[in-house]
Amino acid sequence: MIDAASFFAAKLAYETDASDVYAAQRAGQDLVLLDVRSHEAWRQGRITGARHLPYREIPSRAPEELAGVTEVVVYCWSPGCNAGTKAAAILAGLGIGVREMIGGYEYWVREGQPTENDEGPLPRTFDPQVMVVTSDTSPVS
Fold first, then answer.
1. pTM to 2 decimals?
2. Is-contact 126 133, C-beta < 8 A?
3. Which domains does the chain have, with CATH numbers?
4. CA distances to 5, 14, 28, 129, 132 from 73, in Å
5. Apex CA 17: angle with CA 110 and CA 20, to 5°?
6. Which residues form the signal peptide (predicted)?
7. Within 10 A of 86 (CB to CB), how many other CB atoms are there?
8. In the chain, how many H helices and how many E strands?
9. For 40-77, how does the pLDDT look when each residue is reduced to its tens digit (9 = 90+)?
């Protein structure tokens, strides 16, 4: 039987969250943020700087499109969407290092992180249910 400390350490090795991904981007860490939602969802809005590869297309496209990539962070719509988990399982099976961003696009948007669509940047908003906004409008999680 696995103990709690081992379980949670293993879990954290394969997942991350929107705040940590944004901090990693700002720090210049070399990671690929991969939106695994549908083409329609991608056109509606996505995380600035993300690549797009719907999870159903990963088996045929990932070997070429992710060649040489050392770390991938996948995301889908929300905590209720399991496309990110499906994508992570497929990518891991292909031998690609992967973590899932829990909360998905929904939590990224709720935290006021940068998003865009085909027309350009989308307005940033901060959800008081997940963020505290200071007087200088900087979000604090």
1. 0.89
2. yes
3. 12-136 (3.40.250.10)
4. 23, 9, 15, 25, 26
5. 100
6. none
7. 17
8. 6, 10
9. 999 999 999 999 999 999 999 999 999 999 889 999 99
